[in-house]
Amino acid sequence: MDIKQISVFLENKPGTLNDMTRVLTEHNVDLRALSLAETTDFGIARFIVGDVLDTVNILKEAGYVSSLTPVVVAEVEDEPGALNKVLQVFTDHSINVEYMYAMLGSREGKAYMIFRVQDSMKATGALLTNGIRILDQESLSEL
Amino acid sequence: MERYYQPEIECASREKIKAIQDEKLVRQVKHVWDNVPYYRKKMEEAGITPDDIRSSDDLHKLPFLSKADLREAYPYGLVGVPLKDCVRIQSTSGTTGKRVVAFYTQHDIDLWEECCARAIMAAGGTNEDVCQVSYGYGLFTGGPGLNGGSHKVGCLTIPTSSGNTERQIMFIRDLNATILCCTPSYAAYLGESMKEMGLKPEDIPLKAGIFGAEAWSEEMRHDIENTLGIKAYDIYGLTELSGPGVSFECSAQSGMHINEDHFIAEIIDPESGEVLPDGEQGELVFTSIDKEAFPLLRYRTRDVCSLSREKCSCGRTHVKMMKPKGRTDDMLIIRGVNVFPSQIETVLLNKGYPANYQIVVDRVNNTDTLDVQVEMTQEMFTDNLGEITARQRELIEGLKSMLGIKAQVTLVAPKSITRSEGKAVRVIDKRKI
């Protein structure tokens, strides 16, 4: 049910992110969502793409180290209180959010939130039983 | 089964070795006195004549030669024969100052190649082996020395010289090379490249490697042995004395036997110049007792190590020198503390980091900074920032307990540190003092 996020090691200095996006551009990879985490000397670029395996191979060829991490992508209403509703479900089930970021979609009135949690299965179950739609790799391509 | 190139000398009794050294030293001192005015002047200043040197027991009376003397006497000041009798020069890379140019007669070349032949046979080599020499050929002694040694043993020699990694691997595989001679950092790089190509140790025909020309740690040895599926032997030498083969490792892999029929080794206190007893750490000093063209007496190598005369399981009787901790030239003084790159390497490999690293020393606000740059690997990488920084902190702790000072650790992109095909550039010192 979950979506695999790609995480890539990057040095924290000018041009490194650009070097990576150039590689992705050359291979026509569409970034659906992107977030950066950084320390003073290095960072991790986290992103969602359509074809995960293809992209990982492209990155490997180009000399990057990367890893796959399961994340939960929830579809919410694009209106005040929607994120609060999701987080309330997590709170009720004692689910800790390690990090989160947003993703764009083309469906009218909808917004998408990406969550990294310890137990993706548990989070998915909790959200589904509360009537919140979860995206999988396949539904991602329909957006 | 242990193999020897010249068993009658390599396994001679201590009495016989001493007799050889006594005779050759007396002759060599006379030769230098008669033919090298630069050193004769030093002897005269010290109030010594050849008559004072009756045996190797008198060696300590002779004055030292240092790298500074070699620079001062450059290029011909220490040459002991007419140039018409010289057949070759070799030269150092000149990384620590002016190049050293060493001269050789045919006799000098022969004895140098014999020393290398002993090293190859100690690593198990015979005339049935295929020996790939990936040291640089040219002014650098690595290529010519091992090439000559390989010929003397009768190995099929592949003189690839350094560089062109793809071609190196192609020859190793296509011609079934069994012995590899190169710098340890290049061996590690070849191993890494073959691993990337999907080759397993059992797919690689090599069985032994003879690696030298730079300091390397035990941990690096294990790494190379595991990736290439070989036994890795250390070899030591200096251009000033001939080149590789001054000493070499045997199957015991616990120190390098010094070719004592050609070189007399001493360990001295680098401050006072006093000779230290066996087992004590100090600066290694060599006297070449058989060289004609470039006969150096009591040459201070600046290498720090100790000597051991304990009986060796290989049957050789020549004294062993322990792996030098580093050259005093390599030694960094950071915030007043002596730091050898080999110590940093030991910590890195112990903690599972790759052997490819760079040390950047700088001075910020009048304080020395030490930055150890390590490449991120696929195995180490995780999406969890906290886990990576925790490992980074653990490495900083490990370095601190080894070095006694705090170092910074910077994780850099894979393959971003330049791979060396010769001697690795480990240290970048940006301090302007």
What is the oligomeric state here? Answer: heterodimer
Largest sheet of chain B: 9 strands, mixed
Give the count of helical stretches of chain A: 5
The counted number of beta strands of chain A is 7
Structural class by secondary-structure content of chain B: alpha/beta
How many whole angstroms does the radius of gyration of chain B measure? 22 Å
Share in helix of chain B:
25-40%
- Average pLDDT across residues of chain A? 93
Biggest interface and residues each: A-B, 20 and 17 residues
CATH architecture of the largest domain in chain B: 3-Layer(aba) Sandwich
What are the segments of chain B in which pLDDT stays under 50 over at least 5 consecutive residues? none
Percent of residues of chain A in helical segments?
25-40%
What is the strand content of chain A? 35-45%
The assigned CATH architecture of the largest domain in chain A is 2-Layer Sandwich
Taking the sheet with the most strands of chain A, its summary is: 7 strands, antiparallel
Please, how many domains of chain B? 2
User: Quick one: how many beta strands of chain B?
Assistant: 21
- Beta content of chain B: 15-25%
CATH superfamily of the largest domain in chain B: ANL, N-terminal domain
Taking the alpha carbons of the first and last residues of chain B, their distance comes to: 54 Å
The CATH homologous superfamily name of the largest domain in chain A equals VC0802-like
